[in-house]
Amino acid sequence: YQKEFHCSPAKIRLFIGGNRSGKTCASFHDVMWQLTGEYPSWYPDNLKLVTPVFSRWIATDFKQGVGGVFQPYFGQLVPKSYIDRVTKTQQGILSKVFFKNGSILEILTDEQDLSVFEGWHGHRLHVDEPCARERYIASKRGLVDYGGRASFSLTPLKEPWIFDELYEK
Questions:
Q1: Burial zone of 54 (CB within 10 Å; 0-12 exposed, 13-18 middle, 19+ buried)
Q2: Which tens digit of pLDDT belongs to each residue from 108-147?
Q3: Contacts of 63 (CB under 8 A, 6+ apart)
Q4: Distance (Å, rounded) from C-alpha 124 to C-alpha 143?
Q5: pLDDT in tens for each of the 169 residues of the chain?
Q6: In this structure, are residues 55 and 27 in contact, taking their beta carbons and an 8 Å threshold?
Q7: Please, which residues have CB within 8 angstroms of residue 112's CB and are 6 or more apart in sequence?
Q8: C-alpha closest to that of 105 among 120, 119, 90
Q9: pTM higher than 0.90, yes or no?
Q10: Cα distance between residue 58 and residue 110, in whole Å
Q11: For the residues of 14-34, what is the DSSP string, one character each?
Q12: Which contacts qualify for 158-166: CB closer than 8 Å, 24 or more apart?
């Protein structure tokens, strides 16, 4: 089921499942393949992006969503040799990653003010767990310049707009 998610040509992809079903892990790999330009042999050529790629990851919060989930994946799976530099919050949690190939990953959370979501433009948007609709819409507008795609990995416990506006379609 993870491969089906990766190979989907949909402009908006949803990976919905319960806890420990592999949704965040699959999404992390998908985003990192695009940021690094290094894909598995089976990945569809028509979905591969040419670096540099500008990507945004939206998590629930910095403490658990980024520090407890995203950052451990990042530390284990992304070679330090790929990274030019990172910025972190005052608590030492990743907020932006600059890759040596010019790609940039911006990490935001649903707890931040809506204004920080505006004015961005990029190739990829990923939402890990439900976020407020207005943060998604502000980020999605930034995909227009590059014809970008959005993806979600979530357990659907809140934010009913995702079911109504995305899942139903």
A1: buried
A2: 999 999 999 999 999 999 999 889 999 999 999 999 999 9
A3: 91, 93
A4: 7
A5: 889 999 999 999 999 887 777 788 899 999 999 999 999 999 999 999 999 999 999 999 999 999 999 999 999 999 999 999 999 999 999 999 999 999 999 999 999 999 999 999 999 999 998 899 999 999 999 999 999 999 999 987 778 788 888 887 7
A6: no
A7: none
A8: 120
A9: yes
A10: 7
A11: EEE--TTSSHHHHHHHHHHHH
A12: 158/130, 159/130, 159/131, 159/132, 159/133, 161/133, 162/14, 162/130, 165/133, 166/12, 166/14
Q: Distance (Å, rounded) from C-alpha 166 to C-alpha 169?
A: 5
Total length of the chain: 169
Beta strand 94-99 with 83-88: parallel, antiparallel or unpaired? antiparallel
Both tokens assigned to 40: 């598995």
Q: Name the residue type at position 142.
A: G
Q: Give bridge partners of residue 151 from the DSSP assignment.
A: 13, 126
**What does 109-159 look like in DSSP terms, one character per residue?**
ETTS-GGGGTT---SEEEEES---HHHHHHHHHTTGGGT-EEEEEE--SS-
What is the token pair recorded at 18? 């319960």
